[in-house]
Design brief:
Strand content: 25-35%
Order of helices and strands: EHEEHEHEEEHEHEHEEHH
Structural class: alpha/beta
Bound molecules: 1-O-pyrophosphono-5-O-phosphono-alpha-D-ribofuranose
Mean pLDDT: 96
Shape: elongated
Largest sheet: 6 strands, mixed
Distance between the termini: 31 Å
Number of strands: 11
Length: 209
């Protein structure tokens, strides 16, 4: 049985549909309830829903053989996993954003609020800009509104959250999308099964391109 960690939520449902079309469906998985584990014995797959930011932890430690994680999480936490495929879904960008009239004052340390300390740190280090990172866990857009930070480094998808809070993108850092990941041991011992999944999903991403 191949253990597959899917990110809970809207992205997870889209991603599950890709696995199902690849030939690995699991009856009942999309029904509204609190169940977390679903099996299709005949197809040899067991899916479980986890918090999107936890998928890489399950895969890295071998509790899941494969999973789907955002590139943002992979860059931020650098888990020891193999990235097998860009699913070309869950597309968004990592960006610096701030008040529309923001002007950087190079004489002062820039205060940056973010969930992504490493990505923000590396981005500003590459510019040689000295910053003070303020780590937050959500609603990052609030920080510049209340004067907690000058700017934010966060994910922008439609741009609605920024717009509705009077903020704008100042610089784009990276494009982000969902990735199929596995760990070294699973890839070694279940390569045929994992490759069958990858091939079935690859066809769909190529149709998209
Ligand atoms: C993410 C991100 C932004 C928002 C961007 O937040 O942190 O706040 O989505 O999407 P948009 O450009 O389409 O508005 P999420 O919903 O994950 O919640 P969070 O506040 O807990 O980070």
């Amino acid at each position: 049985m191949l253990n597959i960690a899917l990110p809970k939520g809207r992205l997870g449902e889209k991603v599950y549909a890709m696995f199902a079309r690849a030939g690995f469906p699991c009856p009942g998985i999309l029904e509204e309830n609190r169940k977390l584990v679903f099996e299709n014995e005949e197809k040899g797959v067991r899916y479980f829903w986890v918090k999107p930011s936890d998928v890489a932890v399950y895969v890295e430690r071998g509790a899941a053989d494969v999973g789907v994680a955002g590139k943002d999480i992979l860059l931020e936490h650098v888990p020891d996993v193999y990235e097998l495929l860009d699913l070309k879904t869950g597309i968004c960008r990592m960006a610096v954003a701030g008040p529309k009239d923001f002007r950087d004052d190079p004489r002062r340390k820039l205060r940056v609020a973010t969930k992504f300390d490493r990505i923000a740190g590396e981005y500003y280090a590459s510019l040689g800009r000295d910053i003070d990172i303020i780590h937050l866990n959500g609603s990052i857009e609030l920080a510049p509104l209340l004067g907690l930070s000058d700017v934010i480094v966060d994910i922008v998808e439609t741009g609605t959250t920024l717009r509705e809070n009077g903020l704008a993108v100042i610089a784009e850092i990276l494009p982000i999308s969902a990735r199929l990941i596995t760990n070294k041991a699973s890839y070694e011992f279940c390569r045929a099964e994992i490759e069958a999944i990858r091939a079935g999903i690859l066809d769909q991403t190529e149709e998209k391109a």
